[in-house]
Design a protein that fits this description.
mainly alpha; single chain; membrane; 71% helix; 161 residues; transmembrane
Length: 161
Protein backbone atom coordinates (compact mmCIF):
# COMPACT_ATOMS: atom_id res chain seq x y z
CA UNK A 1 0.00 0.00 0.00
CA UNK A 2 1.38 3.40 -0.93
CA UNK A 3 1.06 6.64 0.97
CA UNK A 4 -0.67 9.73 -0.40
CA UNK A 5 0.54 10.90 -3.75
CA UNK A 6 0.20 14.59 -4.52
CA UNK A 7 -0.35 14.90 -8.24
CA UNK A 8 -2.05 17.16 -10.76
CA UNK A 9 -2.70 20.25 -8.66
CA UNK A 10 -4.68 22.56 -10.97
CA UNK A 11 -2.34 24.38 -13.28
CA UNK A 12 -4.14 27.64 -12.90
CA UNK A 13 -2.78 27.92 -9.36
CA UNK A 14 0.71 26.65 -9.96
CA UNK A 15 1.35 28.01 -13.46
CA UNK A 16 1.45 24.60 -15.09
CA UNK A 17 3.80 22.87 -12.66
CA UNK A 18 3.17 19.29 -11.70
CA UNK A 19 4.06 18.08 -8.28
CA UNK A 20 4.83 14.43 -7.95
CA UNK A 21 6.39 13.24 -4.75
CA UNK A 22 6.89 9.62 -3.99
CA UNK A 23 6.30 8.68 -0.42
CA UNK A 24 7.60 5.79 1.62
CA UNK A 25 5.85 2.52 1.38
CA UNK A 26 4.01 1.60 4.47
CA UNK A 27 5.17 -1.98 4.28
CA UNK A 28 8.64 -2.92 3.11
CA UNK A 29 8.84 -5.32 0.24
CA UNK A 30 11.87 -7.05 -1.21
CA UNK A 31 10.23 -7.15 -4.64
CA UNK A 32 10.04 -3.36 -4.99
CA UNK A 33 13.50 -1.87 -5.49
CA UNK A 34 12.23 1.30 -7.16
CA UNK A 35 11.19 2.79 -3.82
CA UNK A 36 14.72 3.60 -2.67
CA UNK A 37 15.55 5.03 -6.08
CA UNK A 38 12.40 7.21 -6.06
CA UNK A 39 13.11 8.42 -2.54
CA UNK A 40 16.64 9.38 -3.46
CA UNK A 41 15.53 11.44 -6.47
CA UNK A 42 12.60 13.16 -4.78
CA UNK A 43 13.34 16.59 -3.48
CA UNK A 44 11.53 18.54 -0.82
CA UNK A 45 8.19 19.98 -1.85
CA UNK A 46 9.52 23.41 -0.93
CA UNK A 47 12.23 23.15 -3.56
CA UNK A 48 9.77 22.98 -6.45
CA UNK A 49 9.40 26.15 -8.53
CA UNK A 50 5.63 26.30 -8.17
CA UNK A 51 5.85 26.49 -4.40
CA UNK A 52 8.54 29.15 -4.62
CA UNK A 53 6.10 31.22 -6.66
CA UNK A 54 3.38 30.64 -4.06
CA UNK A 55 5.68 31.89 -1.30
CA UNK A 56 6.01 35.20 -3.13
CA UNK A 57 2.26 35.50 -3.70
CA UNK A 58 0.93 39.00 -3.09
CA UNK A 59 -2.63 40.34 -2.97
CA UNK A 60 -2.84 41.49 -6.58
CA UNK A 61 -1.58 38.17 -7.96
CA UNK A 62 -4.00 36.25 -5.76
CA UNK A 63 -6.87 38.50 -6.86
CA UNK A 64 -5.92 37.98 -10.51
CA UNK A 65 -5.85 34.21 -10.02
CA UNK A 66 -9.14 34.29 -8.17
CA UNK A 67 -11.03 36.38 -10.70
CA UNK A 68 -9.57 34.86 -13.89
CA UNK A 69 -10.01 31.19 -13.13
CA UNK A 70 -13.01 29.59 -14.79
CA UNK A 71 -14.05 27.73 -11.63
CA UNK A 72 -14.20 30.76 -9.36
CA UNK A 73 -15.88 33.46 -11.34
CA UNK A 74 -17.52 36.69 -10.31
CA UNK A 75 -20.86 34.87 -10.12
CA UNK A 76 -19.54 32.73 -7.30
CA UNK A 77 -18.45 35.80 -5.40
CA UNK A 78 -21.77 37.52 -5.96
CA UNK A 79 -23.55 34.49 -4.55
CA UNK A 80 -21.23 34.52 -1.56
CA UNK A 81 -21.83 38.24 -1.01
CA UNK A 82 -25.57 37.64 -1.33
CA UNK A 83 -25.49 34.92 1.33
CA UNK A 84 -23.26 37.05 3.56
CA UNK A 85 -25.66 40.01 3.29
CA UNK A 86 -28.88 38.06 3.82
CA UNK A 87 -28.91 38.02 7.67
CA UNK A 88 -28.21 41.76 8.05
CA UNK A 89 -30.75 42.51 5.33
CA UNK A 90 -33.35 40.40 7.10
CA UNK A 91 -32.67 42.18 10.40
CA UNK A 92 -32.89 45.57 8.66
CA UNK A 93 -36.21 44.70 7.03
CA UNK A 94 -37.66 43.43 10.31
CA UNK A 95 -36.52 46.63 12.04
CA UNK A 96 -38.11 48.78 9.32
CA UNK A 97 -41.38 46.86 9.60
CA UNK A 98 -41.31 47.20 13.39
CA UNK A 99 -40.67 50.95 13.07
CA UNK A 100 -43.64 51.25 10.68
CA UNK A 101 -45.88 49.29 13.06
CA UNK A 102 -44.80 51.37 16.07
CA UNK A 103 -45.58 54.62 14.24
CA UNK A 104 -48.96 53.28 13.16
CA UNK A 105 -49.79 52.22 16.72
CA UNK A 106 -48.72 55.63 18.08
CA UNK A 107 -51.02 57.39 15.60
CA UNK A 108 -53.91 55.12 16.59
CA UNK A 109 -53.22 55.83 20.26
CA UNK A 110 -53.21 59.59 19.65
CA UNK A 111 -56.53 59.33 17.79
CA UNK A 112 -58.02 57.40 20.71
CA UNK A 113 -56.74 60.01 23.18
CA UNK A 114 -58.25 62.84 21.12
CA UNK A 115 -61.59 61.04 20.95
CA UNK A 116 -61.53 60.46 24.70
CA UNK A 117 -60.72 64.15 25.35
CA UNK A 118 -63.51 65.27 23.00
CA UNK A 119 -65.97 62.94 24.74
CA UNK A 120 -64.87 64.27 28.13
CA UNK A 121 -65.29 67.87 26.97
CA UNK A 122 -68.72 67.05 25.54
CA UNK A 123 -69.77 65.50 28.86
CA UNK A 124 -68.55 68.55 30.79
CA UNK A 125 -70.35 70.95 28.43
CA UNK A 126 -73.50 68.87 28.66
CA UNK A 127 -73.32 68.88 32.46
CA UNK A 128 -72.85 72.69 32.47
CA UNK A 129 -75.81 73.14 30.11
CA UNK A 130 -78.03 70.98 32.30
CA UNK A 131 -76.98 72.87 35.40
CA UNK A 132 -77.73 76.21 33.75
CA UNK A 133 -81.15 74.95 32.63
CA UNK A 134 -81.87 73.90 36.19
CA UNK A 135 -80.92 77.34 37.45
CA UNK A 136 -83.14 79.04 34.91
CA UNK A 137 -86.13 76.87 35.62
CA UNK A 138 -85.77 76.64 39.41
CA UNK A 139 -88.83 78.37 41.08
CA UNK A 140 -87.03 79.23 44.30
CA UNK A 141 -84.24 80.86 42.40
CA UNK A 142 -86.75 82.88 40.41
CA UNK A 143 -88.37 84.08 43.66
CA UNK A 144 -85.00 85.12 45.09
CA UNK A 145 -84.21 87.03 41.89
CA UNK A 146 -87.58 88.81 42.07
CA UNK A 147 -86.93 89.81 45.72
CA UNK A 148 -83.46 91.07 44.84
CA UNK A 149 -84.90 93.13 42.03
CA UNK A 150 -87.48 94.65 44.44
CA UNK A 151 -84.77 95.43 46.99
CA UNK A 152 -82.64 97.13 44.34
CA UNK A 153 -85.58 99.30 43.32
CA UNK A 154 -86.22 100.21 46.95
CA UNK A 155 -82.55 101.14 47.46
CA UNK A 156 -82.59 103.32 44.37
CA UNK A 157 -85.69 105.07 45.62
CA UNK A 158 -84.08 105.68 49.02
CA UNK A 159 -80.92 106.91 47.36
CA UNK A 160 -82.91 109.37 45.23
CA UNK A 161 -84.81 110.83 48.25
Amino acid sequence: MRGFLLRDIPRKFLNGARICQHTKFLCSSANNTNSSKALGEAKSVRDLGAYRQLDKLDFMTAAKILFTTPNLTLDFHLVQIFFACMPPLAVYLVAQYARYEIKRMEVEEEVKKKKAEEEEKAKVMEALALEEEKRKNDPELLQVKARLGALEDALKGIAVE
